[in-house]
Structure formats: C-alpha cells, structure tokens
Design brief:
about 350 residues, five-stranded mixed sheet, 12 helices, 10 strands, about 45% helix, globular, binds adenosine-5'-triphosphate, binds fe (iii) ion
C-alpha cells in the first residue's frame, strides 16, 4: 500500500508518501515540511489566522513536492490520509479541504487521521513495534501514557493535569528570552548549565498514579529568574544555562519516575515483556530520551524512540496512521469534518460524528 499524507494542525505544513508491504517497518518515500516559525516569531507564539492562511497557500506545493520527491503520481496512491484533528481548527480545515479536493478529483479513498494517533503509531512506522505497547506521548499540547492495542484502540493510563511539557519548554524559552520553539533552544542552553544550582520541584511524585503536572515548573522558573535579576540586575549567559538545565532535569526526572509507574500499571493487565515507546516533539529531547532509556534498562523493558525528524510534526506519521486505518477498513467520505478536540480513546471520526 502507498499513501499520501497531509498534515496542517499546527505551524508545519507537511505532505509525505509512505509505503508499507507486508510486515516490517514502512518506507518513507518522501516527507516534505514547510515550517512557519518565521511567520510567527514576531508574536511569541503561533497565530492561528496566520497559520491557517499559510497552510492554505502551501499545501498544494507540499503535495507536489512530496510526489516529485517520491518519483510517483497521484494515480500511484492507494488512498489519501489527512489530519482531521485535534489542532488549530483553521489549519485542520485547510488540510481536510485539500485532501477532499484530491480525493474528489482522483476517486481515491479519503482517510481522516487523528494527529495524536499519528504520533502514537510512529514507533510502528520506524521499528515495526508489535501491539500492544506502552506509549508516552509528549508533545506541544499533550502528555499522556497510552496502551496502544491497534490503530484505533487506545487506553489512557494517565497524563498531565495542566500544561504539556512542550508548552512548558516554550514558555520557559519565552521567559528567558530564547527563540521559539522553546524545546531545542532550552536543550541547547541546558548543555552548558548546572542542573543542581536551582532546585526545581518534582510535581506529583508523592502520588502513586501516572498523572503529571508541569505548570508549577514555569512558576518556579519565573520566581528564580526574578530573584537572580533582583540580586544582579540581569541574567548572565550562565544563569540562563543553569535555569534551563534545572528545568530540563526536573521534567526528565518526573517523566522517568512516572514512566516507571506506568510500566507497573501496564504490567498488571499485560504480562510479558513490554515495549515502551515515546513520541511527540518533546521526545526529540536527548536528556529526556536518556532518562527514559535508563528506566527501561533498569526494569528490563524494551525502549524505542523514533528518529528526531519523526518526533516533531510531519506527514509521514499521518500517512502511516492512515495506512493502518485503511488496512482495517477505515474510510471517510466528503462529510469528514475537522475537529479542534479529539481524544484518542474514542478514535474513529465516524464514531464521533454519531454524537458519542
Ligand atoms: P500536539 O502534537 O500535542 O498537537 P504539536 O503538534 O504542536 O502539539 P509537536 O510538533 O509534536 O507538538 O511538538 C512540538 C513541541 O515539541 C514544541 O513545544 C517544542 O518546543 C517541543 N520540542 C521540540 N524539540 C524539543 C526538544 N529537543 N526538547 C524539548 N522539547 C522539544
Ligand atoms: Fe504534534
């Protein structure tokens, strides 16, 4: 099977062609991404209206470039997959309209994909991880532990009760005057910092479940920053690096400890050797990957993390999740709608369309 995938739920316009034959990992024949960072940089965050317009302008080019890079034509595709939510609604609508147009023009089947399912199935795209597995999905807007049993079968074990870690990284960067997206800038600065100098809290570790909280870290960071500024009249490069290192270490510690608990909860219902997989933009963080790897080796759990380029938003994951849905008979039609919210434990667009 060969699918074209479209992604436009946040600030990346993307198209990709993915092929999967039988067992084993899939093949990413092309993956094109137009980032919008410079369009939003003056505003300190993604402006939904600007994003929607840029997606509408760029999608056609992305599709053309993805097909050219794969050396294929639309007629070589078996179906067209598109992110139908959750995300910034204007962008999602742009993607869904474009996919509907392509499907109508070619007669190809249309598959609506949950963006989070795209992230959550990425370990199968790259490493052919068998079902079931334990997924830590950590991204710009989400943080949750999921048991993944099938392309539309997710059970949520726990997750953040407030901010997502990606959001926390982005806010931290903003508070320290570092460029967006915050994750990579904070990680870069943290490399030269001392994680011990500032004592960040480790929220919710006193609770046995795998729920998390990150909003307190941002407040703590603001307090520490203001204290240093009051004492010295400003922040040195070293102060900034130490704040980044302390903040990143707190997130890595909390994710590692909560992953240990999620493994325990997972094992109660799924005996055997589990695989822990991580995905989403924050999974690109090397300190967090290392912390999770340590927990997994200590608990005798296999660990897998997709390559960095497939952790952050891309259309290859959408094409692949669409391919899995397509394979089990998932189809949408011209009534497919864009959804700003779409929790993973109720997966198919049709089910939601019926008002459940
Ligand atoms: P969602 O998938 O929840 O809808 P999103 O699509 O905006 O949100 P992703 O593209 O999956 O999120 O991830 C983007 C987030 O990942 C941003 O918040 C960014 O700061 C963060 N991020 C990217 N690289 C790193 C890194 N190296 N360390 C930490 N965070 C990172
Ligand atoms: Fe995402």
């Amino acid at each position: 099977l060969t699918l074209l995938g479209l992604e436009s739920s946040c600030d990346d316009t993307a198209a990709a062609v993915v092929r999967h034959c039988g067992d084993g990992p899939a093949e990413v024949l092309s993956s094109v991404i137009f980032g919008q960072a410079e369009l939003h940089s003056a505003y300190g965050g993604v402006v939904p209206e600007i994003a929607a317009r840029a997606h509408a302008e760029k999608l056609d080019h992305c599709v053309r470039d993805a097909l050219t890079a794969a050396g294929l034509h639309l007629r070589d595709m078996d179906a067209i997959a598109v992110t139908a939510g959750p995300g910034l609604i204007g962008g999602v609508i742009s993607g869904v309209m474009c996919a509907k147009g392509l499907a109508a023009a070619t007669g190809l089947p249309l598959i609506g994909v949950n963006h989070l399912a795209g992230h959550a199935l990425t370990p199968r795209l790259t490493d052919a991880v068998p079902y079931p597995y334990l997924m830590l999905l950590v991204s710009g807007g989400h943080c949750q532990y999921l048991i993944v049993r099938g392309p539309e079968d997710f059970t949520r074990l726990g997750g953040t009760i407030d901010d997502a870690p990606g959001e926390a990284f982005d806010k931290t960067a903003r508070l320290l005057g570092l460029p967006q997206p915050g994750g990579p800038s904070v990680q870069d600065d943290a490399e030269n910092g001392d994680p011990q100098r500032f004592r960040f809290p480790r929220p919710l570790l006193d609770r046995p479940d795998c729920n998390l909280s990150f909003s307190g870290l941002k407040t703590a960071l603001m307090r520490m920053r203001d204290q240093v500024m009051a004492e010295k009249g400003g922040l040195t490069r070293q102060d900034r690096a130490d704040l980044c290192a302390g903040f990143q270490a707190a997130i890595a510690d909390v994710l590692a400890e909560k992953t240990r608990r999620a493994i325990r909860i997972y094992l109660e219902e799924n005996p055997g050797t589990p695989t822990v997989a991580v995905a989403g933009g924050v999974a690109a963080n090397t300190a967090i990957r290392a912390a999770l790897e340590t927990v997994c080796s200590e608990t005798g759990t296999a660990f897998t993390a997709p390559p960095l380029a497939l952790c952050t938003d891309n259309a290859a994951m959408i094409a692949y999740a669409g391919l899995e849905r397509f394979r089990i008979g998932g189809r949408d039609d011209m009534t497919l709608s864009a959804r700003p919210r779409w929790p993973l434990d109720q997966s198919s667009p049709a089910m939601l369309g019926s008002g459940k």
